[in-house]
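Much of what follows relies on a compact textual record of a protein's fold. Think of the row as the fold of the chain written in a discrete alphabet. An example makes this concrete, so a full record is given next.


***
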Amino acid sequence: MKNESLLKKVFRLLAPLALFPLLFYPYSLVNSKVIVDIFGCGCPVIDSDGNVTQSLFNANDFTACFWFVVAVGTVLLAFFQSKKVITDRPWLRILYITGVAALSFLCMYLFNRLMLWC
């Protein structure tokens, strides 16, 4: 019985990190079908004088903002989840939140790099 409750605690603590793989494919589809059409792909455009111009905000910037919000949301979810699950060891809660923050921002960086246009 104790193992079952330990397994439930582990799943509850890892649940916030599931946001990244759950949102990857839906966002990838929306990014390629909608967001690029609205904001542009971020590729440099060469005008008639040969100067390179870029838009101020493009799909790459939107993607970076999206994954940043997901990373911050993951850390916030982990914080509230840790208050419910890890009640007796504050140092363990700090270690857990720090680990989730590190993994979240690593996933944010990697997912943003995977979805860059040009």
Summary: The chain has a mean pLDDT of 89.
